[in-house]
Amino acid sequence: GEVGDVASAQAIAADLANARLSAQGQLATLYFELRSSDQQQRLLDSAVQAFTQSLQITRNQYSAGVAAQSDVVTAETQLEQTRAQAIAVGVQRAQFEHAIAALIGKAPADLAIAPAAMAASVPVPPPELPSALLERRPDIAAAERLMAATNAQIGIAISGYYPDLTLSASYGFDGSRLSKLLRASNSFWSLGPQLVEPVFNAGLTAAQVAAAKATYAQSVANYRQTVLTGFQQVEDELAALRILAQQATVEDNTVRLAREAERLTLNQYQQGTVPYTTVIIAETTRLTNEETALGILQSRLLASVALVQALGGGWNAAQLPSTEQVKEDDPATPTR
Fold first, then answer.
1. At what angle do helices 276-310 and 206-270 cross, to 10 degrees?
2. How do residues 221-266 score in pLDDT, each as one tens digit?
3. Rounded-to-integer distance, Cα 279 and Cα 258, Å
4. Which of 57, 92, 37 is nearest to 283 (CA)?
5. Which phi and psi (to 5°) does residue 252 adopt?
6. Which pLDDT tens digits describe the chain residue by residue (336 residues)?
7. Residue 168, SS3 per DSSP
8. Of 48, 72, 132, 269, which residue is least crowded by CB atoms under 10 Å?
9. Which letter does DSSP use for residue 208 in this model?
10. 0.85 cut: is pTM over it?
């Protein structure tokens, strides 16, 4: 019927919006990964400079007769290893750049993205996000419209329905409410018990009635699972952002301490009170913690991208084509 055809067309439009949202999320993710590679390059280039200075110190100590030649060789080894790592970053960066080019429809050779600084601040979500925002998810809209289409096929027309819950960045779902939600009957996810005994169009055989009921039940179950999956994805990213922010605070302090330890051990080596292995350990620890801090920042930015995508980006169900627009776009619909 006409109602079912319109709902089906709206579901297709929502599927298209979902594909677009997925591509946008992938593009944003690739961009932050590319910028993370740029930052990794800067970290390693800076380490190369620091290790070059350390090598010069070992050479000076060796020339003065207060250090062994093994110190010089060890410093040279560390320097060359770090240079090799800095070069290797270029391979990964090129792959991200090529992936971005392919995603936006360009040949990899036709796109060159200049290195730039990585964002240092992470968008902070509000403390609570109403679940009504999930109406902005095109996959939920598509599932809801398919449910409406199956209703129309058996002579029933219902409007959209979305559970009214609150997603909290601090505590997630209230346990009892989530439990009730998960135990809710399928009718909870549509309009209620009046749909249990729908009025079918005249002339349907018993087999057709059974098939229509089964199709409808499947569409309701799919809608229910799509909504629950949406809730899960939002909660996942809210939790990730909260926990990663805590980790970032601790790791930033660790980096500060590691840099201070590196400075102190290098001074002690020059004074002849510690072996060069102590310097190597301190320098490696400092670089490792800086790379860990960068990884945390990257994860936080990617979680922000994923949260925006989980909330539907800038899309909302109001953007679905109206019945009139569907009719206008259908060449089979006669014009007056």
1. 150
2. 888 888 888 888 888 998 999 999 999 999 999 999 999 999 999 9
3. 12
4. 57
5. -60, -40
6. 566 678 888 888 888 998 999 999 999 999 999 999 999 999 999 999 999 999 999 999 999 999 999 999 999 999 999 999 999 999 999 999 999 999 999 999 999 999 999 888 888 777 666 667 667 889 988 988 888 888 776 655 444 555 555 555 543 444 444 444 444 444 444 433 333 334 444 455 667 667 777 888 888 888 888 888 888 888 899 899 999 999 999 999 999 999 999 999 999 999 999 999 999 999 999 999 999 999 999 999 999 999 989 988 877 777 778 877 777 765 555 443
7. strand
8. 132
9. H
10. no
Place of tokens 């805590």: 246
Amino acid at 147: M
Helix (H, G, I), strand (E, B) or coil at 233: helix
Q: How far is residue 263's CA from residue 61's CA, in Å, rounded to a whole number?
A: 17
Return all residues near 102 (Cβ < 8 A) that are at least 6 apart.
Answer: 108
Q: DSSP 3-state assignment of 31?
A: helix
End-to-end CA distance of the chain: 20
Amino acid sitting at position 98 = H
Inter-axis angle of helices 2-63 and 69-103, nearest 10: 160
* One-letter amino acid of 274: V
**Residue 278 CB partners (closer than 8 Å, separation 6+):** 265, 268, 269
Cβ(277)–Cβ(326) below 8 Å: no
- Which residues are CB-neighbours of 190 under 8 A, at least 6 positions away? 147, 151, 158, 161, 220, 223
Taking the C-alpha atoms of residue 129 and residue 132, their distance in angstroms, rounded to an integer, is 8
Closest CA to 134 of 39, 60, 230: 230
Q: Which residues have a Cβ under 8 Å from the Cβ of 266 and sit 6 or more positions away?
A: 54, 57, 279, 282
Instruction: Judge whether 167 and 125 are in contact, CB under 8 Å.
Output: no
For residue 114, give Cα distances in angstroms to 31, 41, 97, 99, 110: 12, 13, 10, 15, 13
- Tokens 């939002």 — which residue? 234
> What is the torsional sign of CA 139, 144, 148, 150?
positive
Give residues with Cβ within 8 angstroms of 205, minimum separation 6: none
